[in-house]
């Protein structure tokens, strides 16, 4: 997830959805974000209850992995994206395209309303990721806080890239530079903004998953499909489409990487589905064991 969040056009939420931890992650983030609010109100018992709802066995190693990948990715991925832009975009395009089946399969029964939500969300994402990038070399701390609060929402929302939103807001290069140079003041403000945005958005997202699960999954399908525009291997500086180059060998290599990405995520999702089915195999006493990190879609 951390590696994906560094890449403009790829969402860490997509990774969470692929491996089957998405709903559990959103629930845990919502509970963790609610605990400080309860504590400020003097509700010690409520604080304990919220902290008990957090799946720490999932959240702590996941957070460690994300932080590690963000640190490593801030050095490695920009180099690869600059040196091999078409090849990297193609690989990520295949990964995201293969991921479309994940939320789609979680819709219990597809209706015309679901198809309409897919179309609307797809159009919105297509327009959003077509916005030209900006660069703000010296942003104010208030701008850093607000941008982090907005970008973190995209980082847990499959289909919309937090890194891409930072590019649109003009803080992508500045934030990577702060990570590389360990600019403590900038990073503290960024983390505070991200924490506030994450807590508020996770609460909303958990409500939607709980009350309108299938519609939410349909929206995620549309967001992921529309975001593929940002991963087209040949784009100009303002994200306009360019035709493939005349070099047939270069085009073939790009297509091969896209197919490899699609195949990889297909294998991952099938492995995840097999694990989930095994976790739900009835026990001898007739009960079904549920994996803590792979909740079944509602209605199934």
Please, what is the average pLDDT?
80
The number of E-state strands comes to 0
Q: What is the total number of structural domains?
A: 1
Helix content: over 70%
The number of helical runs is 14
Q: How far apart are the termini?
A: 27 Å
H/E element string? Answer: HHHHHHHHHHHHHH
Regions with pLDDT < 50 over 5+ consecutive residues?
A: 287-300
The rough form would be described as globular
Main sheet properties: none
Structural class: mainly alpha
Radius of gyration: 20 Å
Proportion of beta-strand residues = under 5%
Secondary structure topology:
Blueprint: H1 2-6, H2 12-18, H3 22-40, H4 44-53, H5 56-83, H6 85-99, H7 101-105, H8 112-128, H9 141-155, H10 162-169, H11 172-181, H12 184-211, H13 213-226, H14 248-279
Helix pairs in contact: 3-4, 3-12, 5-6, 6-14, 8-13, 9-10, 9-12, 12-13
Write structural notes for this entry:
The model is unreliable at 287-300 (pLDDT under 50). The protein has one domain (2-279). The protein starts with a helix and ends in a 21-residue tail after the last helix. It has 14 helices and no strands. The protein is mainly alpha-helical. Helix 6 (85-99) runs parallel beside helix 14 and helix 8 packs parallel to helix 13 (213-226).
